[in-house]
Amino acid sequence: MSVVEQNARAHIVTETSVPLIDELQAVPVTLRYDPDTDPRCVAMRLPGAGGREWTFDRRLLEEGLRSPAGSGEVRVWPCGRVQTIVEFHSARGVSVVQFERQALLRFLRRTYTAEPVTH
Cβ distance 108 to 66 under 8 Å? Predict the structure, then answer.
């Protein structure tokens, strides 16, 4: 099995830990899937102080592309026809990140081709 890693451009709409970030500027976010670590989960690494990485169920990302999904630390929902919002909650605050829907779809497709074939 191989690790899937993809960089995506995103807009951080709200970021408590980086209050001076330009909200109009796209930033690089790393999307990662490692089936050897946990075949059910994906990870997203946000830029900025600390570069926090969030790991959550891959189904949450997939469901959130179609309709609001999640509760607790990670929530995902469609925003119009071409955007998707991923919201991260922590003790430090809330980060709301806006992605192009197609970038997340490409990443998900790649994760499914990286999975082992089961008989």
Answer: no
